[in-house]
Amino acid sequence: MKNTRPVLSLLVLLLFFFIGDRMxxxxxxxxxxxxxxxxxxxxxxxxxxxxxxxxxxxxxxSYYAPYMEEKLGLTCYNLSYNRLRIPFINLVFNDYLEKNxxxxxxxxxxxxxxxxxxxxxxxIKIFYDMSERMRKHLATYNHKEWQLSRLSRVYRYNGEFLxxxxxxxxxxxxxxxxxxxxxxxxxxxxxxxxxxLNPPSGRALQEAKAFMETANAYGCEVRFVYNPNMPGxxxxxxxxxxxxxxxxxTGKVWDYSDLFQDFTLFRDDxxxxxxxxxxxxxxxxxxxxxxxxxxxxxxxxxx
Length: 303
Hints:
Number of helices: 12
CATH topology of the domain at 49-119 and 174-292: Rossmann fold
Low-confidence stretches: 298-303
Strand content: 5-15%
Radius of gyration: 22 Å
CATH superfamily of the domain at 49-119 and 174-292: SGNH hydrolase
Shape: globular
């Protein structure tokens, strides 16, 4: 009679792996969903009703929702995140609309249409159980990640979203870039004169068009915006050329690329700090960026 102990040992090991993986995965899911991380909030809730949603990569985080609510009297929620691009924005927005009230206004910072568009593929596995749309997208664009996520619940939480969720506190809407750019950063920006902006890719334009079509179908106003660059970051005309090529698909892009000449309003070469955020929003209010959802107080008071 053959010795079956190795086979039984393997089966027991696999059983423990399966049970342990499910139990730890359940704990991770519980921790993620009970957090106030921005994406956990929209997947665990129903009937959210925000007047304004903000989408973008890290530059989209410049819209400090608490300050916007104070100035505008509108409910605002920022769904921007580092390195995320328009394909992920489309997925999240469509999932949001399935269970929540469509916003009146959507702000999209256009750096989410630039560069590598698939950075989200390393993080969306966390939504494997929460969104069929995310699951299908992962299977299509990163089949290996989809297979591993299908096999292991723990693997789905192997990414920075879980860590960010655990650190989110009462609300991650207070997450804002603080501090000021160092002199070394400023000198580095000013010393480089040959930065380029490639025109938007065909896929980026298709994703932007799809986003607008979805928003329009739900009665949402979409406003694309270019947030401030550090002075001297691009040579004159480069941003204008990029925006002109993008506007053929998106319509008007609100250009604030050269709004600031004060380096103290920047945290680094790419991001404004909290003081810059306040000034950007105040300028947008003065420009009528939020009209007709908000009118300047002088107009409202008849002054």
